[in-house]
């Protein structure tokens, strides 16, 4: 049923039928491992691929580029897959849809975000618990609301894992926007006042698709550039090789025991 609204972004169709499904774009492949790490750290992933000689077991295709999906065997012998996501909220949604169709049932995502709160140190780890939905994609998966929550069991697992590893982190909301060049001082202040720690372009879509398909998913962000002041400070956020490599390594470690969706169940919080 289509819930009408004067504004198209706020219309929501409760039907789960869709004319286009991800299976229509996929190659005939063996199912991927159920646990998956998605990273936005291209150079650090490439270094890991070269060091570990990771095999390619699939591809995410688009008109402008193809993204390899790699197999990684953890020290305990479990195979997981590692790949990157297409950028922005629509790309994030397509990434989860297609990986889910290929067999992935739980996702740990690592990336960077702009710091909204003054005093946030470069490299600080943030575990988002919810995202402010200032983008468009999430509204095609969930009815309109101001925020979308991250999967609680997945957040709990990552929080426990970070504590076990002795890695300090902060929890809170993130602001997902579609317009990197429209992060205005007024909007930054408004999002800061409602408790957002970071700003990025994918989390709300990740969380919405996770809820729609009932897939455990959580995200680790590091505080990169600083948008909390009167002027933007890049802090060379995208050249922090050690921070990015360490966060990717942490995400891989935290897939151990990560909850996965079980067929026939809404969400499984067991190993």
Summarize the structure.
The chain has 271 residues and is an alpha/beta fold. It has helices at 42-52, 88-101, 152-165, 185-193, 203-213, 241-253; strands spanning 2-3, 12-13, 35-39, 56-60, 67-73, 79-84, 106-115, 125-134, 147-149, 170-177, 196-200, 217-226.
Description:
This protein is an alpha/beta fold and 271 residues long. It has a single domain (31-253), classed as Rossmann fold (3-Layer(aba) Sandwich). The protein has six helices and twelve strands. It has helices spanning 42-52, 88-101, 152-165, 185-193, 203-213, 241-253, and strands at 2-3, 12-13, 35-39, 56-60, 67-73, 79-84, 106-115, 125-134, 147-149, 170-177, 196-200, 217-226. β4 and β5 (67-73) form a beta hairpin. The protein is globular and about 50 Å long.
Summary tags:
271 residues, alpha/beta, Rossmann fold, five-stranded mixed β-barrel, two-stranded antiparallel sheet, 6 helices, 27% helix, 27% strand, disordered C terminus
CATH topology: Rossmann fold
State the helical fraction: 25-40%
Average pLDDT works out at 93
Shape: globular
**Alpha-beta classification:** alpha/beta
CATH superfamily: Nucleoside phosphorylase domain
Count of discrete domains: 1
Q: What's the arrangement of strands in the largest beta sheet?
A: 7-11-10-8-12
Distance between the termini: 36 Å
* Largest sheet, strands/sense/barrel: 5 strands, mixed, barrel
Number of helices: 6
Tell me the total number of β-strands.
12
Weakly predicted, low-confidence segments: 266-271
Please name the CATH architecture: 3-Layer(aba) Sandwich
Rg estimate, integer Å: 18 Å
Order of helices and strands: EEEHEEEHEEEHEHEHEH
Strand content: 25-35%
The CATH class? Alpha Beta
